[in-house]
Amino acid sequence: MSQERFSPQEIEKIVEENRRYRSALNEAREVQKSSLSCEIPQIPGWDLGAASDPAHELSGDLLDIIEVQKHSQKPGEEPERILHVIQGDAAGKDIPAAILSTATHALLHSHFHPQKIDETFLAANYGLRESIKNPGNFVTVIDAQLNIKTGDLQWTRAGHTRPLLLEKKGKRIKQIKIDDGVGQPLNVALSPTFAHGHWQMTEGGKAFVYTDGVEEAHNGKGHFGERRIIKTIRDNWNLPVQEICDIVIEKANKFSKDKQDDKTIFGLARL
């Protein structure tokens, strides 16, 4: 059986092409990191944190935080501070998913209207359908809106994982389950429907939003699942939210042993 041999010139060319590919990939990673990264705000009375771990060189997850002011109709009242947490998860992995995620992020930003999230999602959906014809290239998205003063948490879901809501009463940590309907991902239908939910956060309450890569981490026998996510949070309840998010990602990665999907989690707690 003959073995194919390369000349020194051919080997040098292969090495150079590989170097260029790695360089372009590193540049793409930095561009994505700068465009999709967000600064976690420090807000009195609240504790926030986030963690993300891509499965490959580039991530198909997105996370953005936008703070807006909602002006009162009553004269003399100060405007309310509303924190919008936008999280998304593009179908697929690595470069194709990263392109889809970045396009979605740009569309959501360009059409963002804090009082009309459904319209924001619909505009982004239209943009995706115009530019990406394959309905298999879909994106799940959630916009979670927190009223910093009142603790009112509202969300709009486009096929994304439901928020995980937990509160502590005495020594008991209880999960709050809210049936908010079923929402459709972006780029699967001309006029997708979205799910809407609401929860009044009180002192000691925690809320987490995460991409399905966390929940669906698989070890060959089963998924990491919501139950293990909740146990991890309960076991580390008194830690800062940032550390809890880091531990959840670490536990999910150890459970699956290899990185099968991008993982992103954001959490907030009312102090």
Explain this structure to me?
- The chain has one domain: Phosphatase 2c, domain 1 (4-Layer Sandwich), CATH 3.60.40.
- Helix content is 34%, strand content 28%.
- It contains six helices and ten strands.
- The chain has helices at 8-36, 94-110, 117-131, 212-215, 225-235, 241-256, and strands at 46-53, 61-70, 80-90, 139-147, 152-158, 164-169, 172-176, 195-200, 206-210, 263-270.
- Helix 2 (94-110) crosses helix 3.
The CATH superfamily bears the name PPM-type phosphatase domain
Bin the helical content: 25-40%
Secondary-structure element order, N to C: HEEEHHEEEEEEHHHE
CATH topology: Phosphatase 2c, domain 1
Name the structural class: alpha+beta
Tell me the number of structural domains: 1
Tell me the fraction of residues in β-strands, as a range: 25-35%
- Second-tier CATH architecture: 4-Layer Sandwich
Low-confidence stretches: none
Number of helices, counting only DSSP H or I runs of 4 residues or more:
6
CATH C-level class is Alpha Beta
* Spatial shape: globular
Tell me the radius of gyration.
21 Å
> Alpha-carbon distance between the termini?
71 Å
| Largest sheet: spatial strand order | 1-10-9-6-7
Outline the biggest β-sheet.
5 strands, antiparallel
Mean pLDDT across all amino acids: 88
Tally of DSSP β-strands: 10
